[in-house]
Each structure stands twice: as structure tokens, then as C-alpha cells.
């Protein structure tokens, strides 16, 4: 039995969700980027093949060679092509995203015949062409082959997909009135209802959603993360422990649990919070952090527990007060992971 | 106009009407609102022709109209559809700094101008499709068929120099319209232009000819007859007509400048005047300026016949643009303005967006007072 920081996948249940979602989402293009949502990009590529999908989307050109090896269909790159990129893969199965007129001219000169997608700049204000630049973009195409038009929409008002319908509609109309010769519109962050409405309003367009999180992580019940208790020591209040020889606040148990910074444990990213209440909560947490302790993502005996010291590279030291029931060495504990930043020692399809 | 020497500083000073006209004649086209004659038409403003000098060579020109503030010896300096300078050559401060200095010396509390710079164009087919699409409510929603990056950069430069674009409502500001409709004539024959029109236009032109509508040009004496139909149109379309004297003044001023600067067109059916228009031309640019038609005998399509005659004459005179002037930005079929756009779109021309009108305050308090006053006046 391995004792790492591992992800167990209830394969049957996970695939049931994937099959249902793919069936309910015609034209879906799975997004396979970064850490592969914790599952790993190769696994997701293989799963895309199993699902019978013809194309996948990766984040960057660095991810392309692996994707081409793991998947037989088309690979589109979400990051717009730039002339200064040095990992660009020119392959007939690769579809490049173009967001600047000058880049289109440049790629047309460098790689005539390359397959591309034009991206429109939405209210995300991240990448893309202004709608009035579309004619110039078309004029710059040369022998490039346009495979579609893409828009990347922000999350909706509640921080979830939704509320983007008006913007999606406006871009769909703009695409139809433009000189861009394609009827394929790639979208992201639209709800199934919005997708359906867009298809009804724009019957001439082939609307293709690019989906990552809600596909791969859409049924979290199928995924369980296993952190293993590697060791447990009784400690007394005031006893100095760890790399930093910190005194323990109370009597209790010190747990050494698999999972450290190299697994993504203890990473703090800006919280996706917006409300005053949520900000208040963070502030309260910050107060405790100021006292020298940080809340860990490990749940032991029903509660989220504190780090006894900052997480190590591959294991964490967790303080458990004497009032709690300590797990045995070899027991597994629950961890709240952010899948997009987690790296597992193993992903076990069960 | 190329010069091997380094560009020197530019100076602005008043020029005579003759000097101004001489400069205009050397240009492919300048707005008719930038001719010395226009100052005569706008008699309620004081007009001044100014020139930009590089050494002793005139390299740019403008007609400035000064409007006095009530009870004060301070003016708004207005350069409608001007000035005529090298807008896209870069370094606008070189042109606009001496302009500001000169106008300030003349007592201007602020400057208003309308750079004759086209930023975007939409072809007729695109507009027609957009009108049919409920999601595309304005021209700005519709991807332009042509977008001029250098022209758009002028806005950034003007902003950096302290100029502010006048807000417009649906493309209409208090001044000149931002969106215009033009029929390109360069390199086209009469047959090309006709073939570019939609079926309805072609049918109506034919219908008018078949019905025996005759289009002729008129003299100053015919202005009264034009005015009669124009007043009827004003009543029907609910706008305030200008008096006959205004048109007579325009006739005198413009035709004195160039005999064919202003031409009066009259369309008659069996002796009855059914439509009357005026066309203004400066160099390669011809404008349909005023138009009127009778309610009676609408079915003989005098309006189409008279437009067609103006286009043909513009073409024969060497014009590269037939300008049907302002349109609103709206493409909403529920908006009453859309009918006018549809009429113009039928010619197969294009909607053009200009850079708009821009203000530079010289005296901030006076400029603020003036803007507030104009807003309240509505």
C-alpha cells in the first residue's frame, strides 16, 4: 500500500458524469491544461479519446507536444500566438489562437496554411481583437485557414458562469455581420441554458463550448484525496518541535501527514471572494495567522486543524489538541485541495 | 508636397479669402464648411480665414467662426469639419499649439473643431444585415468593414493634448454629425454606381424616367420655387424651415466663390415641381445638402430621379465622393431615423464615422459656463 498524497477516482462514477455531460453538450471541446485539474493531462487526453471527441484545447504551446502524443485529434492552443514564442509547434493538428492583427500578418508569413481561430476581446479584457478590427484581421489572413471564432467570457455576477448571455449574443451577431468566414463559435463560461438559448437565437452558428472545470471536476463525489498519517507523537504544551522549534500552544498530538508544498498544500492564492462578509472572515483568519498559526487544509476528527509549523515540501506537521481523537498511523485524513494547484503522488483509477 | 528640409516650427496667422481659396483649390477636397464663402452664409458668426505657415509656405488652412458670449468680448472659436491640416502625419502639437495661441490672442475662451478624419466605414450590405439583426442596435455594435488605425490614434493624441470629444447622442451632437453616408465614386462609371444600388432604387429611377420626370438645374430665381416645396416638406417632417433669404445668401456667397459650388436641382413631372435639392461641391467631394419633395405625386419617384442626376453630375465633375451627409447611429428598426438610413443604404454606399467634434478649453471658467449654458438650452 502506498502512503503518498493521492487522488482516488471512483472511475465508474467519474465516467458516468463525463458521459452525461458530453452527451448533453454537443460540440464540447474539453480543456486540458496546467496540472490537468489534478488528474493529469495525459489521463484527460486518454479520456477525451474514450469519449470520442475530435478536438481538445490546451493552455500553452509547452503543453502541445504531450497533447499531440496522447491524443489523435486536433489540439487548439488557448493562449494567443505571439511572434516571440519559442515553443510553437507547427503541426497540421495544431490550431492557433490569434488576437492581434500584426500577429496574423506575421503567422501568415511564417506558416502559410496554418489553422487558426480568431479571438474577440470580451469584457474580460484579456486577449483578442476589437470587433472593428475583424475586417483588418481577415485582410491579413493570407493562406491561414480560419477554423472558428472564440470568445472568452468572464464569470457571471455571482462569480459563477451565467449573466454573460448578452455579451455572447452581441459577439455572435457581430461575427455574423463581419467578414470573418466561419460559422463556428467557441465559447466558455456559459451555462447550459445560455448555450441552448444562443443556439436557438443563432441557428446558423455552430456553438462549441470549451469546458474544463465543470467537465473534469463536475462531480467531486467521484474524487477523493487521500493524505496518510505517517506518524503521530504526543506533545506537551511548551514543547519545541519542527524545523523551527516552535513551542506547542497546548498539550496534544503532533501529526505528520503526507502532503506538502510540492503537492500544492499551503499555497495561498487570492480568494475569489467579493462580499463584505467573506472579506471579514478572511480578516478574522488573518488575525489568527498573525498569532503565528495557519489553518491547514487537513480535516481531522471532524475539524479543520492548524499547521504546527509551515508545511514542508512533502509532508505537513499538524497540531491536534488533546480533546480530539487522534488517528492512527496509516489512517487517511480528508484534505480540501484546490485541484487546479494540486499535484498528487498518484492518481488511482478505482 | 514633399520637402527634404527638416520641418520647421509652424506659425498661424490670418490669410485673405483669396489666399485661403487658393490653398483649397490645391487640395483634393475640403469641407464646404471650411470655405471662405461659408463665413458669409453664417452671418451671425464672425469668420476668419487662417493659414499654417512653414516658413512662408502655406501648409494648412481653416475657417474659424467666432461666436461671442453674451455681454463679453470673449468667443467660442469653431472650426466646423476642420481644420484642413496634416492630421495623420504625427506630431499634432506642432499644428494645434500655434492654433491655440492665435485663437487665444483673438479672445477665444475655447476651441471647438471637427477633424475631417474618417475612422471607420461600414458597407451597405453590412448595414442592411445589421438592421435585420435585432441584437445589433447601433453602428458601433457592428464590425466595421474598414477601420483606420492611424485615424483612431488621432483621438489618443488629441486626448493627450487636453482636447475632449463632445458627447453625442445616437451620433448626433449639437454640431456636425459624426456618422455620415457616402457613395464612393472614385474609379466608377455611371453603370457601376447604378449596379451598386439596390433593386428598389434602380426600379424607382426607371419608374421616374418612364413617368416622364425631368430633372433640370435652376437659377437664383428658381430658389423661391425650391423654397415653396422645402417649406411643405418642413411642415410634413416637423422641422423648422430656414427663410428663403438664407438660401439666397448661400447662393450668392457660394456661387461667387465658384460658379458651380452650389447647384439647384428641380425635378418636374408634367410641369409640376415634385422635388428640389441643392448640391455643393468642393474639389472631389460633392454633398447633397438640402432636399425637398411634394406630398403629391410621390409615386413618380422624383426624389430618386433627382438624386441620380446629382450623382451623375458629381461623377462627371470628377468627384470621388457623393456625400449624403448625416445619419444617426441607430440601426433599430423601431427608431424613426432608420428609414432615412435605409433610403441612403439603398444607394449601395457606405456609412463613415468621423472622429467627432472636440473641445479645448482656453479659459476653464468661461468654457464651463458656456457648456452649461448650451446644455440647458438643450
Could you describe the 3D structure shown?
The complex is a heterodimer of chains A (350) and B (378). The radius of gyration of chain A is 24 Å and the shape is elongated. The longest helix of chain A has 15 residues, at 276-290. With 350 residues, chain A is of the alpha/beta class. In chain A, strand 8 (184-188), helix 7 and strand 9 form a beta-alpha-beta unit. Chain A has helices at residues 11-24, 41-50, 64-70, 101-110, 134-139, 165-177, 192-201, 213-216, 276-290; strands at 6-9, 29-30, 55-58, 74-77, 94-98, 115-120, 145-152, 184-188, 206-211, 223-235, 240-241, 246-247, 252-258, 294-300, 303-307, 315-321, 332-335, 346-349. Chain A has an 8-stranded parallel β-sheet. Chain A has a 6-stranded antiparallel barrel with strand order 10-13-16-15-14-17. Chain A folds into 2 domains: 31-218, TIM Barrel (Alpha-Beta Barrel), CATH 3.20.20.10; 221-349, Lyase, Ornithine Decarboxylase, Chain A, domain 1, CATH 2.40.37. Chain B is α+β, with helices and mostly antiparallel strands and 378 residues long. Chain B is built from 12 helices and 16 strands. Chain B has helices at residues 17-25, 36-41, 93-105, 124-132, 149-160, 190-196, 199-211, 223-237, 244-257, 302-316, 338-345, 364-377, and strands at residues 11-14, 46-54, 57-68, 75-79, 108-113, 118-123, 146-147, 164-165, 179-184, 214-218, 262-269, 272-282, 285-293, 321-327, 350-354, 358-361. In chain B, helix 3 links the parallel strand 4 and strand 5 (108-113). In chain B, helix 7 (199-211) crosses helix 10. Chains A and B meet through helix 5 and helix 6 of A and helix 4 and strand 7 of B.
Amino acid at each position: 500500500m502506498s502512503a503518498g498524497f493521492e487522488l482516488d477516482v471512483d472511475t465508474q462514477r467519474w465516467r458516468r458524469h463525463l458521459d452525461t455531460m458530453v452527451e448533453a453538450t454537443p460540440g464540447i471541446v474539453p480543456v486540458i491544461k496546467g496540472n490537468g485539474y489534478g488528474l493529469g493531462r495525459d489521463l484527460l487526453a486518454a479520456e477525451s479519446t474514450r469519449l470520442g471527441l475530435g478536438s481538445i484545447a490546451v493552455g500553452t504551446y509547452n503543453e502541445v507536444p504531450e497533447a499531440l502524443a496522447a491524443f489523435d485529434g486536433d489540439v487548439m492552443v488557448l493562449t494567443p500566438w505571439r511572434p516571440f514564442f519559442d515553443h510553437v509547434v507547427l503541426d497540421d493538428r495544431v490550431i492557433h489562437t490569434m488576437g492581434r492583427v500584426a500577429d496574423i500578418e506575421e503567422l501568415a508569413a511564417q506558416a502559410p496554411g496554418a489553422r487558426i481561430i480568431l479571438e474577440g476581446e470580451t469584457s474580460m479584457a484579456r486577449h483578442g481583437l476589437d470587433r472593428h478590427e475583424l475586417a483588418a484581421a481577415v485582410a491579413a489572413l493570407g493562406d491561414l485557414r480560419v477554423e472558428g471564432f472564440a470568445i472568452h467570457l468572464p464569470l457571471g455576477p455571482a462569480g459563477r458562469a451565467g449573466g454573460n448571455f448578452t455579451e455572447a449574443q452581441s459577439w455572435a451577431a457581430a461575427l455574423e455581420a463581419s467578414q470573418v468566414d466561419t460559422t463556428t463559435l467557441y465559447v466558455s463560461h456559459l451555462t447550459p441554458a445560455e448555450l441552448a438559448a444562443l443556439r436557438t437565437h443563432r441557428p446558423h452558428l455552430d456553438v462549441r463550448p470549451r469546458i474544463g472545470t465543470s467537465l473534469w471536476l463536475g462531480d467531486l463525489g467521484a474524487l477523493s484525496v487521500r493524505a496518510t498519517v505517517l506518524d503521530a507523537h504526543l506533545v506537551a504544551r511548551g514543547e519545541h518541535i519542527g524545523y523551527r522549534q516552535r513551542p506547542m500552544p497546548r498539550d496534544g498530538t503532533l501529526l505528520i501527514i503526507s502532503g506538502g508544498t510540492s503537492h500544492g498544500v499551503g499555497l495561498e492564492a487570492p480568494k475569489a471572494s467579493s462580499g463584505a462578509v467573506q472579506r471579514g472572515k478572511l480578516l478574522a483568519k488573518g488575525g489568527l495567522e498573525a498569532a503565528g498559526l495557519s489553518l491547514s487544509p487537513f480535516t481531522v476528527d471532524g475539524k479543520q486543524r492548524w499547521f504546527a509549523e509551515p508545511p514542508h515540501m512533502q509532508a505537513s506537521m499538524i497540531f491536534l489538541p488533546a480533546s480530539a481523537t487522534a488517528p492512527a498511523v496509516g489512517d487517511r485524513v480528508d484534505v480540501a485541495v484546490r485541484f487546479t494547484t494540486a499535484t498528487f503522488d498518484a492518481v488511482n483509477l478505482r | 508636397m514633399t520637402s527634404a528640409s527638416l520641418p520647421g516650427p509652424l506659425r498661424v496667422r490670418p490669410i485673405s479669402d483669396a489666399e485661403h481659396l487658393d490653398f483649397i483649390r490645391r487640395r483634393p477636397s475640403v469641407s464646404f464648411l471650411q470655405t471662405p464663402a461659408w463665413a458669409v452664409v453664417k452671418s451671425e458668426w464672425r469668420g476668419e480665414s487662417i493659414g499654417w505657415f512653414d516658413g512662408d509656405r502655406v501648409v494648412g488652412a481653416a475657417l474659424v467662426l467666432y461666436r461671442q458670449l453674451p455681454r463679453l468680448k470673449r468667443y467660442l472659436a469653431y472650426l466646423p469639419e476642420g481644420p484642413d491640416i496634416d492630421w495623420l502625419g504625427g506630431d499634432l502639437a506642432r499644428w494645434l499649439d500655434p492654433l491655440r495661441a492665435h485663437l487665444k490672442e483673438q479672445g477665444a475662451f475655447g476651441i471647438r473643431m471637427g477633424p475631417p478624419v474618417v475612422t471607420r466605414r461600414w458597407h451597405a450590405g453590412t448595414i442592411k444585415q445589421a438592421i435585420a439583426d435585432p441584437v445589433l442596435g447601433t453602428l458601433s455594435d457592428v464590425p466595421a468593414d474598414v477601420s483606420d488605425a492611424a485615424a483612431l490614434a488621432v483621438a489618443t493624441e488629441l486626448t493627450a493634448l487636453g482636447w475632449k470629444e463632445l458627447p453625442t447622442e445616437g451620433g448626433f451632437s449639437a454640431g456636425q454629425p459624426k456618422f455620415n453616408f457616402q457613395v464612393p465614386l472614385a474609379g466608377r462609371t455611371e453603370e457601376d454606381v447604378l449596379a451598386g444600388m439596390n433593386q428598389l432604387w434602380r426600379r424607382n429611377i426607371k419608374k421616374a424616367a418612364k413617368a416622364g420626370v425631368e430633372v433640370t438645374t435652376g437659377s437664383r430665381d428658381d430658389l423661391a420655387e425650391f423654397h415653396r416645396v422645402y417649406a411643405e416638406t418642413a411642415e410634413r417632417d416637423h422641422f423648422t424651415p430656414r427663410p428663403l433669404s438664407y438660401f439666397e445668401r448661400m447662393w450668392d456667397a457660394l456661387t461667387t466663390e465658384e460658379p458651380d459650388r452650389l447647384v439647384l436641382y428641380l425635378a418636374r413631372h408634367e410641369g409640376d415641381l415634385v422635388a428640389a435639392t441643392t448640391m455643393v461641391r468642393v474639389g472631389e467631394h460633392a454633398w447633397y445638402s438640402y432636399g425637398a419633395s411634394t406630398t403629391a405625386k410621390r409615386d413618380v419617384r422624383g426624389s430618386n430621379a433627382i438624386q441620380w442626376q446629382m450623382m451623375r453630375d458629381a461623377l462627371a465633375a470628377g468627384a470621388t465622393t457623393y456625400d449624403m451627409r448625416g445619419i444617426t447611429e441607430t440601426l433599430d428598426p423601431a427608431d424613426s431615423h432608420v428609414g432615412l438610413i435605409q433610403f441612403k443604404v439603398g444607394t449601395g454606399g457606405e456609412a463613415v464615422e468621423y472622429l467627432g467634434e472636440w473641445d479645448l478649453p482656453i479659459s476653464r471658467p468661461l468654457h464651463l459656463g458656456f457648456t452649461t449654458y448650451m446644455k440647458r438650452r438643450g
